[in-house]
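Quick board copy: two proteins, each given as sequence then tokens.
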Amino acid sequence: MTFEDSHPKEQISIDVIKQFLLGIAFRRLLTLIPLTYISISTIEL
């Protein structure tokens, strides 16, 4: 008997938390890319 078989609700909540954290990390990357581009372009000016 594995962990997934004995606790399906806990496994679902862990998956939801993982998706939430991955979403936050992905959004951070998407917001950092334009900010770094803007800062690099202002330095070149």
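And the next:
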Amino acid sequence: MAKARSTPRTDPGAAQRATTVLVAGGVAIAAGLAIAGTYDSRIGGAVTLLGWALSLFGLHRFGRLGPA
């Protein structure tokens, strides 16, 4: 089993990448809702689901950075 990190990552660009993933997730959610409302609900639902997954992944990465 992998050992959990006790110290936060020190990569200076990690916060920027996590923020980018969070923003991309939000944009995908908005785009999916727009597609579902105007074009096709299946495609819109898939895009919205992708946006939720991206948002959760970005939130996880942002949370793993630790304080500061």
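Board note added afterward: The radius of gyration is 15 Å.
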